[in-house]
Hints:
Blueprint: E1 2-4, E2 10-12, H1 17-26, E3 31-35, E4 41-46, H2 47-56, H3 64-67, H4 80-89, E5 94-99, E6 102-108, E7 120-124, E8 144-146, E9 149-150, H5 151-161, E10 166-171, H6 175-186, E11 191-196, E12 217-222, E13 225-227, H7 231-241, E14 245-255, E15 260-264, E16 267-272, E17 276-289, H8 303-310, E18 316-320, E19 325-327, H9 331-342
Parallel strand pairs: 2-3, 7-10, 7-12, 10-11, 14-18
Antiparallel strand pairs: 1-6, 3-4, 5-6, 8-9, 12-17, 13-19, 14-17, 15-16
Amino acid sequence: MTGLNKENLIIKKTDSLDVILRALEKSISKVLFCVNKDNSLFGSITDGDIRRALLKYNTAELSAEKICNKKSLHANEESINSVLAKAKKKQIKAFPILKDKKISRIFYVNNLIPKKMPPVVIMAGGLGKRLGSITKDKPKPLVEISENLTIIDIIVNNLIAQGFKEMYFTLNYKASQIEEHLLKNYSDKVSLNFVIEKNKMGTAGSLFYLRDKLQGNFILMNADIITNLNFEALINFHNKNRNLISVVANKTSYQLSKGVIEYSGNRIKAIKEKPSIDYTYNAGIYIINAKCLKSLQERYLDMPDLINNLITTNKVRLFPLMEYWKDLGIIEDLEEAKKDLVNGFK
């Protein structure tokens, strides 16, 4: 147990989302502590607090005050041991020690039990038609982002860095090229397993062949996505809510090029000049409980169909994305990703 430099973990109640994200990225314990004007503790902010706020508010409205968990764990010098026991039980990595309601130091919790990461299924069977001639002789996952660094390399290396040790790849188009590349470069680093689709199975159909191999929860993602997603946060969200499927989703806005008329009958109620429309879209990353695979049949199936079949269980929930994410389905996005690589995909 160690006292941390509290200045690296303390933010103001008025700080913006950008300030919070930069501070959280630097935080070893992945938690921040928010203070009032008089430096008394206001609350704490974790990854989960930010994502909950993203669902509730528009991004532009967010500040530390709206994001904060005001019932955060804290202690004084006399109660450290009892609070420490609670922190370990909840897998909390750090909490503040208060004196006169102000943070005197930060307590870091050592010896937390490392979490075992679930298996990952990567769907890599697509034709990559939207990339045109680039995928004529090679599958999209083997398209290079830089010299000797392919899309699938970036995905696999990121997963390994986050602690994943078991991976399944569903393959179809030029399957042997992908299998050979992965076995050559990663067989000593992670458990590799392959499912070869005889026919096109959609984005979920090939899971039929993994029904007897997957137990509990597993990650499912497309093989043309580059992201810095915090997978541990996704897993924690999924487990806490006891979901059957958690869908990673991205919020964005689109500005219309025309003025929009609101009306009733033929009476104009309002005109909005080139308004922005907010919407949320599927990011192609999921965590799924293997129970969902029991009813699968050997046929074509897309993920939206599987999700819609389970909506009535009330165990399908949205996990908002706040990290870098890029779908490399078209040439323009591929070129952008090459530039983003220089900045570490931030």
